[in-house]
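Worked example 2:
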Amino acid sequence: QVQLIESGGGLVQAGGSLRLSCAASGRTLSSYSMGWFRQAPGLEREFVAAISSNGGLTNYKDSVKGRFTISRDNAKNTAYLSMNSLKPEDTAVYYCAAAIPRGSAYYTQSRAYGYWGQGTQVTVSS
């Protein structure tokens, strides 16, 4: 099994930037496709970004395209979510997740992911 730990969240003003990290242990991250999800109070968890196991394919929620970048460093067993031009509506708990992929697939549905981190809070003030 793989264990995931997120870090890098915090409080930032609108227009600011943060980079979230997702460190994996227990298994090599290169075996997994990775995703980032978020959940705001009172709302369902939603897809933010995904990346294939080799990093060659990515996918984003429409509202974050051009502002967020998902990446991974398999040598460091870490995935990242770089967030720029943050908006108050980006405020949420952000979770990273790992899925055992079929080939070079990535996944946008949370049910595809079997492993989750504990989450890190991102708060964007207006």
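The chain has a mean pLDDT of 96. The two ends are 40 Å apart (CA to CA).
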